[in-house]
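sorry for the late reply, my laptop died twice this morning and i had to redo everyting from scratch. anyway the thing you sent over, i finally got around to it. pasting the sequence first so we're on the same page, its 359 residues, then the predicted structure underneath. double check i copied it right bc i was rushing
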Amino acid sequence: MSTLQSHAPGTSHFTARGQLNGILFVALFAAAVTRLAALPAIAGLGISPLIVGIIAGAIYGNALKDGMPQSWAAGVNFSARKLLRIAVAFFGLRVSLQEIAQVGLAGITVSVLVVVSTLVIGTWAGMKLMKLDRDTALLTAAGSAICGAAAVLAFESTLQSKPHKSAMAVGSVVLFGTLSMFLYPLAMHAGWLHLDTLGAGLFFGGTIHEVAQVVGAASNVSPEATHIATIVKMTRVMLLVPVLLVVGFWVSRSRSANHASDGTPQAGKGKLAVPWFALGFLALVVVNSLHVLPDAATSTLNTLDTFALTMAMTALGMETRISQIRQAGPRALATGAILYAWLIGGGLAITLGVERLFS
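ok and here's the structure:
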């Protein structure tokens, strides 16, 4: 490093090359992670490459944190920030308005009620009961309420929070979402849950964390339940856009209020932090709904998008330090447990109420 820094005229060149090397390193790491996640033992558990990526990245970042050249850090940061925004936007190609219409008002109502209630309860429980900071509470709530790790990434970008806070939220998604994959089908087959096909689809899709986890759990019930559950889950994913806009407005107002109370200049007052990637997500939902792209192109873009999200999660893991997680880990996990209890009890009550209303 000292040799490179001594050549001032070429510093920007070496910096750019270091960033590119960092991005390539993350890409290679993510490729290995993707192969690892495809192993039957891992794929059979419904654990997506995104989850494997943040775990593997965190292990590398903590065990071998001195093994990567410092100049590559900019590339890792690019992957964990800018690349994830692009990837979240392209997540919109997985949703269509026609699919949402298939489950009708029942599916939309369950999705809205679950998302809003879980966000409110999670933020309140995290901040008031568990004494977490606002960002950690919101990230944990978002992962449980909307679409797991992808929602955590989107909120992390909007809130501009620290990587270790996102890692704690993803940890909650991994633990409780994986539990759901086994407990939900078991409860159905054991007769603890008395739900018909529509009810099972609404409940599974409305309350399980990750898309892959929803599919994994519902596939143990019936193909019809899996279809309904997947569409309901994607309806929750659609709610990412309006929720991010509301959160962006709230964060903007909070920052303005904080500036006013401590007497610092309010340069950002009145400005709404609109997450452009959320608008891109919505635009691509429309594109997917209009069938502008051939199916093969959409499938290829979705595969590339999954890889980009895996890169972002891997980079996020590399930037995470276990010592930072340890400080708030138990409280964040307790918040996730409270939300999980709500998703089961409250989510079931919402499902039964909505099904009765629209039957």
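Residues 1-8, 266-273 have pLDDT under 50 and may be disordered.
thats about all i looked at so far, will dig more tmrw
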